[in-house]
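Quick start: what a row looks like.
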Amino acid sequence: MPRVTLTSANPARQTADALVVAVASSPAGPRVVGADWLPAETVEQVTGLAGVLGITGAVDEVRRLPAAGKLAARTVVLTGVGPLDEVVPDAETLRRAAGAALRELTGAPSVAVALPAEDAEQVAAVAEGALLGAYAYTRYRSGEDAPAPAAEITVLTPRARDKSATKALARAEVLAAAVHGVRDLVNAAPNDLYPAAFADAAKAAVKDTGAKGVKVTVLDEKALAAGGYGGILGVGQGSARPPRLVKVSYSPSRPAAKVALVGKGITFDSGGISIKPAAGMDAMKSDMAGAAAVLHTVLAAARLELPVAVTGWLCLAENMPSGTAQRPSDVLTIRGGKTVEVLNTDAEGRLVMADGLVAAVEEKPDVVLDIATLTGAQLVALGPRVSAVMGDDSTRTEVVDAAGAAGEAFWPMPLPADLRAGLKSKVADIANIGDRFGGMLTAGLFLQEFVGSTPWAHLDIAGPAFNEKAPFGYTPAGGTGVGVRTLLALIEARAIR
């Protein structure tokens, strides 16, 4: 991850390979935002030659101009913020503008970012966006042409020496490292990241973090059988690589709250006996994004030394078809004794999550949040960039508020009681699928069966967790790291309630 520093130096005298400034769109043409120090010649290029240079100021637009000796930097990079209703862009607009610029600036070793950063909140947004945008996954690249993000990022702000700004930068670095960690796990090939390998990665991440008060416990297939984790075992029994349940706990002294996180960790989802179509199956390596988000949220909370106890449950299995795979009409016994009739083996995420939720609730947390790439219905309902949240009214609202503060898009969805009838089984306590319509909500109702009276919310990130299209803003193609920022913001809010 790049090294980030703050400086209050004159941007025009800042030595860097690229100097980033904001450009807004307007009916009169593009206009530079918050950069009165720019030479008149550069401003004239932006405004007078906008049509020729293709500069509009639109969101996600990034254009480069030669500095031509007028600035200490070698090039000027114009990043669009779109039309502005106010003089200064809001936090998410700054975050996205910084991210878009850094994402485009591979090959530029040093980048100075001169977006509006007049207070700690703006410093945080600019730094966070820049770090999130400066990401490249190169694990499997063998050539020298692998993308190389900027090694050094300088954020220009008059608050460079303020404690609030330096604290904001430190948090942005922790948060970006967590998101990068999730992206790396999601992007890993499934032949390298299987349940046992994921468990080893979790242990290594805890060790590398060096955070105090973090403990990892791994249950293998024998321990899962002894503990009655029938959902995880049932899903994983078709694979030659057995399942795991990983518990990652951060326990500060005298915690202000106790939060449990449960993440779906299907390291590859073929659909099992109810096999998926071949088209698009390669993206099913991302079906463990929820577990990755849980792992790195716990580690981020520990690194920030938040006064909240956070326990993460990573429900890890590989869903494969084989002679040992579970079959439609099999009955599984979830931890705690509830039985589930498996009508479709491709509705496997809710089975592993049921075990994880029961285990989490047994420890009596103040709130339990689960996060999963759970249903294709989420993608149909909300598209690839907006996640869904269900649960009790209070917790659901808490998640939406945290997402808004973090800059992630989560939309509140209902849990209609009438859909519960579709989950009735003729032979077991509940079936793992219901009627076709309202599938995202039915999945939420299934999970609700395993939380009892504990305050709870379910985050369905099926679409936003893996970007199969072009990059945008600070979001790359592939793993996005969605959910970490929202979960961490909620935990931080719990710390001061």
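That is the whole record. The longest strand covers residues 257-269. The chain has a mean pLDDT of 96.
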